[in-house]
Amino acid sequence: MRTEAPSIRVYGPFLQPFDACRHATWVLHNLTGAEVVHRCCGWLTRGRPQAHARHMNHSSLPEVASTAMLRRLGVSAPELRQWERDGTVQRIRRGYYARPDARTPVVRAVRLGGRLTSYPALEAHGAWCPPDDDRLHVAVNAHARLLRDPDTAEFFRPRSDVVLHWKDVPPPRSGQITGLSLLPTAIRHLPADLDHAHLVAVLDSAVRARSTTTAQLAAGFGGTPRLLRVMRLIDPSAESGTESIARVRMLEAGIEPRCQAKIGRWRVDFLISRRVVVEVDGREFHDDESTFTRDRRKAAELTALGLHVLHFSYAQVLYDWPTCLAAIRRALLL
Questions:
Q1: Is position 69 within any domain?
Q2: What's the rounded Cα separation, in Å, for the pair 318 and 34?
Q3: 0.85 cut: is pTM over it?
Q4: How many domains does the chain have?
């Protein structure tokens, strides 16, 4: 007849000490051979990672990770201390570590005590980012108290180049980078008065890059009316933020362009009324000799077909749109 198990909770030698002799006696008298093997394997592995995880290569570590996350990945305390000594990781805040190649804005956000959001988070996600705001935007918990300076790690004092978004910050989801807000959250933290054409450019680029989907955006916006209204203008066929902005501006002016229209062997950014072609440059446009020659050949062939070709720069679209619009309207009258 089997006896009751000892009242002491046994978690194995890796978590807390236990009476080995007493427990071994109970095991041998009360369990079958198969049960002994099963119980022992459970005690040895419960609460600690599988053996293969303990030998993970540091190159596969997350960009930024908490100590708890590293423990779950199988990194032991001695390994972590050794990696910190040899520069494999750097401690950026108590309980948080980063690889040497971790992106600086993400590291600064974690050092402060939150997650990168708004403008810099868009860039981190690979989405188009509106210009003219180079500040560090960090989402912090509404009850956060131990905030640190993102550069010196001293107690945080308000800075003109740091913007805090006091929000409830949930734990990272599976696969999410610690220190980086989800893309819908970063978009929600953009200024409420942001030009809606710029907001459409952000959404277009995010969907085009497959960083998110329209369904994920709708769910992540949490019923924010302004963002949900703008979503109807999403067109991921736009190849740059400049194209998205030009398209929205033309629609506002009552002009309906065909985007990414195919004319002969060429694809153009916009075709209007089958006779006006509008080409716009993205922020990263490189006017090297080959690009210059190709654009001139393209314009010449399209003009030979009877089309009027207009070409606007990134700066013209963003900062001098009235002049661009006047040129488009004039061309439509010819």
A1: no
A2: 73
A3: no
A4: 3
